[in-house]
Amino acid sequence: MLTIQRRALISTRLNRDGQIIAKPLADELGVSEDTIRRDLREMAAEGLLQRVHGGALPLTPPLPDLAARREISDGTKQSLGRRAADLVENGRIIFLDGGTTNAHLARALPREMRITVITHSPTIASELERHDAEVILIGGRLYKHSMVATGAAAIASIAQMRVDIFFLGITAIHPVHGLSTGDYEEAAVKHAIAQQAASTYVLATPEKFGLASPFRIMGVDNLTGIVAARDMVDEPLAPYRDLGIPLLLA
């Protein structure tokens, strides 16, 4: 098997299985373990995977600050926000997670719509200043990187609520490793919200697919649907179609 073929296979297996273990793969392909390790080292140097002892894992995405994230895929985020806003009907209770994509969702909601929006993000709440929506702001310890409330106080408040739709914010989505983020307490709060929601949608920009952040929120099988960019290549979306997760393309 040529090097380019092995590397393509490694990428496919990593996306499907969530990990590569060098020895079993070497045995399967009939090559030396050193050959597979060399492939993994070279792919890691090119930023294609994360090298670990004995194999490889998907990349952990970087965690730029909020101001920097506003500049990433801004047009795509606007489209995703408009598509997600179509899911909201009058009279609904929704929970808007923090993040720059959900900020576009908040802006896309019709100002005259009579809904209740719960959020633990002061920046999301401020987007709804001129809306007729009732806004409930959850308090707690402010995680400044994402501008959201975390900790025991936030989770205690969330436990008293039931919502129709939760719009979840993430830093990574992977068919095996699930939905994840870069902070332990933030992941715990997101999980708590999902537990109180009748349905959960994630708005995911293309750069978040196939990656895994350190702290897991939940599996992708717990999602009601994924809002994704229409111009994404099909390969990153295929595992979710195979799992029967509805894809709402924007």
From TrEMBL:
<keyword id="KW-0805">Transcription regulation</keyword>
<dbReference type="InterPro" id="IPR037171">
    <property type="entry name" value="NagB/RpiA_transferase-like"/>
</dbReference>
<dbReference type="InterPro" id="IPR050313">
    <property type="entry name" value="Carb_Metab_HTH_regulators"/>
</dbReference>
<dbReference type="GO" id="GO:0003677">
    <property type="term" value="F:DNA binding"/>
</dbReference>
<dbReference type="Pfam" id="PF00455">
    <property type="entry name" value="DeoRC"/>
</dbReference>
<dbReference type="InterPro" id="IPR036390">
    <property type="entry name" value="WH_DNA-bd_sf"/>
</dbReference>
<keyword id="KW-0804">Transcription</keyword>
<keyword id="KW-0238">DNA-binding</keyword>
<dbReference type="InterPro" id="IPR014036">
    <property type="entry name" value="DeoR-like_C"/>
</dbReference>
<keyword id="KW-0678">Repressor</keyword>
<dbReference type="InterPro" id="IPR036388">
    <property type="entry name" value="WH-like_DNA-bd_sf"/>
</dbReference>
<feature type="domain" description="HTH deoR-type">
    <location>
        <begin position="3"/>
        <end position="58"/>
    </location>
</feature>
<dbReference type="GO" id="GO:0003700">
    <property type="term" value="F:DNA-binding transcription factor activity"/>
</dbReference>
<protein>
    <submittedName>
        <fullName>DeoR family transcriptional regulator</fullName>
    </submittedName>
</protein>
<dbReference type="Pfam" id="PF08220">
    <property type="entry name" value="HTH_DeoR"/>
</dbReference>
<dbReference type="InterPro" id="IPR001034">
    <property type="entry name" value="DeoR_HTH"/>
</dbReference>
<dbReference type="InterPro" id="IPR018356">
    <property type="entry name" value="Tscrpt_reg_HTH_DeoR_CS"/>
</dbReference>
